[in-house]
Amino acid sequence: STITQQLVRSYLLTTKNQSFTRKTEEIILAAELTQKYPKTKILYYYLNSVPYGNQTYGAQAAAKTYFHKNVWKLDLAESALLAGLPEAPSIYNPVDNLPAAKERMRYVLHLMYIHGYLHDPQGLGEDGVINSIMASPEVTSWKFYPPQTHMKFPHFVQYALTELQGIKQLTGKIYSGLDVYTTLDPALQIAAQNTVSGQISQLGPYHVTDGALVSMDLRHSCYGCIRAMVGSADYYNASISGQTNMADSPRQPGSSFKPFNYVYGFEHGLGPATMVWDSPLSIPDVGNPADGGVYAPTDYDRTTHGDVSLRIALQNSLNIPAVRVEQYNASCSDGCGGSVRNSVAKQAMRQGITDLMSDNPTCCGWSLTLGGLSRGVRLVQETAAYGAFATPNGNTVPPIAISKVYDHSTHQLLYDASRDGPRPQQAFPAPTGGSPGAYGYEMTNVLSDDASRCVPQVCEFGQGSFLNLGRPAAAKTGTTNAFTDNWTVGYTPDIVTGVWVGNADNSQMQGTTGITGAAPIWHDFMLKAFTILGLAPKAFTQPSGVSFGYSCRLPGAYGTYSTFASDIYVNEIPLCSVPNADGSAPPAYQPPPLQTGPTAPAAPLATSAATVPPAAQATKALAPAAPTQPAAPPVTQPTQTVQAPSTAPPAQPPAAVQPTP
Q1: C-beta separation of 241 from 503 below 8 A
Q2: Dihedral sign from CA coordinates of 110, 113, 119, 122
Q3: Amino acid 10: pLDDT
Q4: Res 591: pLDDT
Q5: Is the CB of residue 330 less than 8 Å from the CB of residue 336?
């Protein structure tokens, strides 16, 4: 193709298919362009837009990148080198392959000679003239290095550029002169970077070198806008692979993946008060040499806790109950998926972890609910997926880095994220007569219940931990069993934030978990965000379709009812207990004592920024003070007293008790 055709292809044609029609359009437009503009002008446009390698576009930018001078100050040798690069900037890259770049330069000099642009006053002939240039001290001393791009927020800028290149409205216009407006809040970004870097510096003795953070806006004014993105603790530290954006790199999420499993169970007949048996579990896993053919999950504290509610199991991150729920989700008769891939994985993808399968082609086994993936998930996507829990309408929260794009010359609005950006999708099914947001609210009710993180039966985190912000907020931590990754993801009605802590090389951390590694960053950043963004405390909005009650259905006997602790549920009366994988009830199910009615606990006091050393926090988490609340956890939302019925199970389910607004 001619230079004119290349210019047409880059700037005037939007389709990229190699068809006869497209080629015809290219030729016709090139002819029209030649008639309208002189060749010098066409060459001017071409040279100021063509790539020269190393993220450099245009001759002036190339002159600055490779020779640190303006293009009009280049000498013959420098000009010849640059003139050869656009043919194949990756092949003739002088940083990576200087000999190839010089060979291309020699060919440029050859063309200049035969066309009369390279003079030979001494009569040396073509070879003599070209060899004298190539052997000059100037050319032989050339050394090129990768350009030092001192971007203020490098990982976010690179993420935004990738998003920019994928916007279809800007096809063929990316390098034609644009004014691009991003969603980043500079003050919040600086606070995020300082919080991540500060905490990582304190975790050095625990062999923790890196961290990442993503925070997204949930308000209607900029729904899904990425307000802060930290990709590493130090972008310029090569020893920790600082230039790798860990906010957009797959990492194993640990228990932070459990809510996708539990919410799928809520959608299919379970509820927070449904009981599950925390006892030794062995599942045939034929052909897997890693576990000897039997998958046998264990809880973090290496013990079991008997019959626990799903609320207590999730809030204390018990592994065995999570796998039992996963078994139910993969096999229940209530319209379940039929496999882990079609239930739990599908739920996570539906909420926003869109690259789950492409990042993990061999997914999914029974360890999925515990974060067991070959590569993992991306922090930016899991953060967005948690955002769906917070939305009253149950919609996804597509991450947005670009808000608006204008043509630099005409000031024409070319792209507006609110008009042209990705559209939110429904993340949860709609319950009968209710909103899809009801299931997200049900999960929020659990994840925001600080009291259930420590009960006499099990107390993994303790109350008042770094997950407590002194206002309505929901959060979950995660730690991989090899201690390579710490996660904390959480949200308020206005903002969702995810934090990852670990090492880019996957080396093992020592003595730190999600509650002691990532949670302090999440806690401190969220408090700063409230101030910077001016976010007042706000209660989560209760959608339609949410109920509270004490009736439950006995497994395997639909229509037979019993009672359990009064709790939230959506759609139908939930099961009393999680059935076994074969559909039968677990052994010796006994309904817990009836509650006279839940009352909302007093709001916890706001805590200051995290200052407790990690070791002290770990001790607190593993050996908390004796709890004072009753065994059955109080429910945080309802305020209306529920009168206890007689001890005999009712023949028909009683009407659901609706909480006061």
Answers
A1: no
A2: positive
A3: 65
A4: 42
A5: yes
Q: How many whole angstroms separate alpha carbon 48 and alpha carbon 52?
A: 10
d(CA 510, CA 648): 52
pLDDT lower than 50: segments of the chain: 583-585, 587-661
The label of the residue with tokens 């204008």 reads 406
Single-letter amino acid code for the residue at 309? S
pLDDT of 635 reads 32
> What are 47-64's pLDDT values in tens digits?
877 889 887 888 999 999
User: Can you give the pLDDT at residue 650?
Assistant: 34
Q: Give the C-alpha separation, 328 to 332, whole Å.
A: 5
Which run of H or of E encompasses 387?
helix 379-390
The verdict on residue 89 lying in a domain is: yes
CA distance 268 to 326: 12
C-alpha span between 550 and 298 (Å, rounded) = 30
SS3 566: strand
CATH number at residue 41: 1.10.3810.10
Whether 470 and 604 have beta carbons less than 8 Å apart is answered as yes
Structural domain of 79: 3-140
In the DSSP assignment, the letter for residue 468 is: -
Cα gap 653→638, rounded to integer Å: 20
Decide if 74 is inside a domain.
yes
Helix, strand, coil tally for the chain in percent (to 5): 35, 15, 50
Q: Is 462 left (phi over 0), alpha (psi -120 to 50) or beta?
A: left
Q: What is the pLDDT of residue 333?
A: 63
Q: Per residue in 249-266, pLDDT tens? A: 999 999 999 999 999 999
pLDDT of the residue at 414: 95
Are the beta carbons of 403 and 181 closer than 8 angstroms? Answer: yes
The span from the CA of 379 to the CA of 382, in Å, is: 5
In a domain? residue 28: yes
**Any domain includes 125:** yes
Q: pTM of this prediction?
A: 0.72
User: Measured between alpha carbons, how far is 378 from 386 in angstroms, rounded to an integer?
Assistant: 12
Domains of the chain: total = 1
Would you state the pLDDT for residue 11?
62
- The secondary structure of residue 338, as a DSSP letter, is S
Give the per-residue pLDDT at 291: 65
